[in-house]
Amino acid sequence: MSGLGAGRLRWGVLLAVTVLVLAAAGVYAVGAFQRFEQSRLAEPNVGVVAGQSLPQEPFVLFRNTATGQGYGNAATVPLAAPGGARAVSGQQCDRVYGAARTVVCLRSNRGLVTTYDVSVLDDQWRQTRSWPLSGIPSRTRISGDGSRIATTVFVSGHSYAVAGFSTATEIRQGTGSPVNLEDFALMVNGERLVSADRNIWGVTFAPGQDDLFYATAASSGRIWLVRGSLDTRTLTAIADNVECPSLSPDGTRIAFKKNIGGPLAAHWSVAVLDLATGQETVLAEKRSVDDQIEWLDDRTLLYGLADEATSGDTNIWKLGTDPGTAPSLFIEHAWSPAVLR
What pTM did the predictor assign? Predict the structure, then answer.
């Protein structure tokens, strides 16, 4: 056979193999999608009622991860009965938070090209505003009066445990334009840090103060808790190694995740920082908690952990702020808690 004929044969074989591989991948993708849809349409494995509106009594808002109908949808349970039947909305969310009878829902819109957006919902689960996100949803918070919304996304990477991740964090006030925290002046030890290598994530708003918030800032391998000012456009470092802060209801303490495993093997313990004294307390949870913690009350924390037995499932746990308190299950098959009173 001539060299030309042999070359054509090799290209033909390569083309045939490529077609077979693509066809097999397509069949697998279709089958996986069908299995996913079947699981979503199955009967739920927990008590569920239709969520027509946000409850009037105090409640917990979360992302439902129970298999069956309503998987991935925003849901609520009464604060007084977290283990009871959950009211599941028709709104699918990757991450959810709420305040002032307003719900913020970060969503992935999967298709030929996956896009991401924010949906702001009223107390009837109706969308009032929406805008696109530049990456994979990670964190969101809303101020107590509902006027300010913070979002964090992964622009590159998909986990805080992976080296080289990059985030984008914005705050929107009302219907105004977004404020990019990357543009704020980052002050460390009284001097402005000029390095362009920085990430900001995990905003938490101070109750009753329109200007003040806290967040995590990182640059050149260092991580700080920063106090932010919307008025002066500054981020001021006030403590080291504080990630995903969450301000207590009384505004005196920060709950956060603390990496005790190092940069190459992240393991996040749950800790609390007293803002007045600077005293840090690491709590009794031994599992790695990659979440932005929520306060159930001034003495109790909530956070999500992957279910050890079921892929794609998560549970919400509670943990007292006394050092010797053991964690306990709060809401099974749930993620991304927010306490609304």
Answer: 0.87
